[in-house]
Specification:
mainly alpha, three-stranded antiparallel β-sheet, two-stranded antiparallel ribbon, about 70% helix
Length: about 250
């Protein structure tokens, strides 16, 4: 528990010392420049009023100074808002640490305790990475937001086990590639023969059905040619004879 408290406090202090420090320095520089521009604007105004600065030159300089001041004003506002946010974050961190001290002797994790500590938990969709099922879980605590859990230090045995699993996965993948390369030509040849036999059988069946239909009634002069399970009807209005159909379709 003590290590956890120190890690939270340390993270807060590091943020204050780095980001907040930079913001404070930038804010100080911008405020100084803003004050300098005020002086410059007054000076060019006086010079113009006393005739030492032409109107055209005055308008150009004053417009440039005023534009820079407007940009600085917005930047100063943003810096102050961010610094205020950092101060609020620091206060929230202290509130969280006070909550931690409140439960230093937890013997049972109750719903009340969980609700006091945890704001929300986001469970992402599982993914497969390097053959392993990986699921990202984000934990947001009250007062301090998302918690970045430290990476788990693995023992030599665990590292060796992970390495062995990786080796086995790679070996299995290589075996599958070689097996596919070895049997693929045979598989293709078998499939080709099966397709050829199926086509031949279908043609023979179609020929037999067509022959049967043609021999059924020669007087009607209606030719029906069967391909597979479908019938092709010749409906041109001029029906060929059985002999013409046989000759045309080589039956």
């Amino acid at each position: 528990m003590r290590a956890f408290v120190e890690s939270i406090r340390s993270a807060s202090e590091i943020r204050e010392q780095s980001e907040a420090k930079k913001l404070k320095a930038a804010l100080k520089h911008q405020e100084k420049r803003y004050a300098e521009l005020d002086i410059l604007l007054k000076k060019v105004y006086e010079d113009n009023a006393l005739g030492r600065l032409p109107d055209k030159r005055y308008e150009m300089l004053s417009a440039g100074y005023e534009k820079e001041q407007a940009e600085l004003e917005q930047s100063i506002k943003t810096c102050r808002e961010q610094l205020t946010q950092y101060d609020e974050d620091t206060d929230r961190t202290e509130e969280f640490l006070a909550l931690v001290h409140k439960y230093t002797d937890i013997t049972e994790l109750t719903p009340v305790i969980i609700n006091e500590f945890v704001d929300k938990i986001l469970v992402h969709k599982a993914e497969k990475i390097d053959g392993e099922r990986v699921m990202e879980i984000e934990i947001y605590l009250n007062f301090i937001g998302k918690v970045e859990l430290p990476a788990q230090e693995l023992t030599e045995e665990e590292l060796a086990e992970i390495k062995e699993k990786q080796r086995l996965r790679e070996r299995n993948a290589m075996y599958q590639r070689r097996r596919r390369a070895k049997f693929m030509p045979k598989t293709k040849a078998i499939r080709a023969k099966v397709q050829e036999a199926e086509i031949k059988e279908a043609l023979e069946n179609a020929s037999a059905k067509a022959e049967k239909l043609l021999m059924a009634d020669n007087d009607t002069h209606i030719a029906e040619v069967v391909a597979g399970e479908n019938k092709v009807y010749v409906d041109t209005g001029i029906f060929p004879t059985a002999e013409e159909v046989k000759e045309k379709y080589a039956i």
